Amino acid sequence: MASDSGDDVVGALNTVDEQLEFDAPDRHIVMSIASSTDVDHSGLQAWPCCQLVCDWFLRTDTQPRLGQSTILEVGCGPGLVAVVLGPSAKAFVASDHDDDVLSLCKSNLQRNGLADRVQTRRIDVVELAAGDTPFDAVPIENVDYLIACDLVFEDVLTSSLVNLSSRYLAKGARVLIAVESRVNFIVATMAIADVALDHFRRCVDDAGLGLVLVDMGDIASATSLERSPTSLLFEIVTGGPR
User: Which of 12, 108, 123, 143 is in Cβ range 3.0-4.6 Å of 79 for a Cys bridge?
Assistant: First the structure.
């Protein structure tokens, strides 16, 4: 397993090859990420939809609430959201199932002076949903927000994410899911579709929950990163389809 040193992470994974630099409120951020990976190491990349989560939390009417909130991020990747929101949140827990990804996240947190401000945990969403890890065994209490960025791309993972969302909604948390819309031509149906997003919608419906597309049009960008037109932000809510 890679150590918390950025250089060691690069050597161990051999895919962390890019420095991401951008400005956030009152800070300049520098992170190590992978520019491209295979599916198994996709958590080493910083996906554009992370920007929407940061912008939503740092908007004027939400930022005061951020300082009173505990945020749990599943699938934290290299830690972009944790690095941006960690200093302002009451508590921030960045989690991932991949030890190498968590190591990179820790390295980026340390690099930006947040090693003592943001917690990191190994949490496997699929294991939780399958019951392999008891839900009550995850020692994170009083979560106000469950967030995830670009975890909607594989059916089992998506189903597990919705299952976990349902559990946290029952505990009173709000759930924000940022996705990358990937529209492709499907030969079997001779139609253009976003298969992963369609599956996500079905999972939410089957769970008896609602899915609200967040309108980002009036929300200003909180960092110098550019938004992607294919990034979408949803809130999963109780009360059935909307």
Answer: 108
